[in-house]
Design a protein that fits this description.
By secondary structure, the chain is of the alpha+beta class. Helices cover 29% and strands 30% of the residues. The chain starts with a strand and ends with a strand.
Amino acid sequence: MTPTVRDFRPADAKAVADLRRAALPHLISTPQGVARQVAGAPPAKQLRVFVAELAGRVIGQISAQLLHESSVPGQAAATPVVHPDHRRQGAGGALLTAAEEHLTAVGANHLFAWADDEPGALAFAARRGYRLTRSGSFLRLDLAGTALPPLPAPLPPGVRLCTGADFGADPYPLFAAEAEAAADEPGDVALDAMDYETWLRTTWEYPDTDLDLTSVVTVDGEIAAFTLVATDGLGRYVSAMTGTRRAFRGRGLARLAKTDSLHRARDAGCTEAFTGNDDGNAPMLAINRAFGYRTCAAERRCVRDLVRG
């Protein structure tokens, strides 16, 4: 039987979340998060989500989107996700074809995707005309069984630890800190055009964002570093972004934010912590490995030039 591809429907949210957890256990995925990703996508993203069905069951999914948070136009992203029990049955290729056609139609010139760093996935990418660029790693920390470093006591003069929830009245300073840090992250696509209204919908108000476990370090009242966190209510914690503003780098403040967040996550009942790093981000990799994070998955960034007919 051949899988069929169709557009995502709101009723697919749970099936897609279950699929993502099975295929990508190092990422957070919940039905409410999937629903918000689709319904809350800004128009500039030109998001179109496809699912692959086999015998009435969702076995694959792809999100095709323009990378609107970059100042370089024409860049897009789409990575097929297929259930481990249904790979090599044509679902990945059919999903990628649908995504490529959509993105070509909305003006994309370059399509970026991720491939597992294993021979089968890399061969699939090569057959589809994708070139390998960067590499990345996902890391896991056993929160229940790993001793965490203690928080410094007292904190340095002028330094204070807050949570994301402490900024509920005005989250803009946290947005500004993330926008500055994201613009400096290593990668193929510069995230240098983030806008506040989109960030509010897709990050601050995103159902999986855990503001109580998000840690923020301030220095003399100004945000200096942060760890932005997502959780799934199943004991899993992901540090989605850890960063330090340029004026405060080199002082260990990102490590302080993450230490505080991990302690509170464990106290809240989280048992597993995950994070992802570009392999060129040596400072963050060193911080994570010092906590006890170990690689649990590896991937390669791929890109293909799209040609409009």
